[in-house]
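User: I'm curious whether this sequence folds into something compact or stays loose and floppy. Could you predict its structure so I can see for myself?
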Amino acid sequence: MDYFVYILGCRDKDGLRTYVGWTTEPERRLGEHNAGTGARSTRGRAWALIHLEPHASKQAAMSREWHLKRDRRFRKRVAEERMRPARRKRAR
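Assistant: Here's the prediction. I'll summarize afterward.
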């Protein structure tokens, strides 16, 4: 069984937000977060999966999750890269 560490991102009135978790089924877990049945801190927002890492064991996934939750610089960089607003073409 594969385990995954994921980072979710969303853009709201306060800017970019991220959430880090681990799961065996990333798409199902994203659906739970967006349906309001995920973690309390993710409720009421539209999340996108912005980073996914596979791990061979539950322990490895949980350890990586712990480290990513403390690495705000990495999460911010990933969110900024993956959630750039679409550029509008300027009329001439």
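Summary: DSSP finds three helices and three strands in the chain. The chain has a mean pLDDT of 91.
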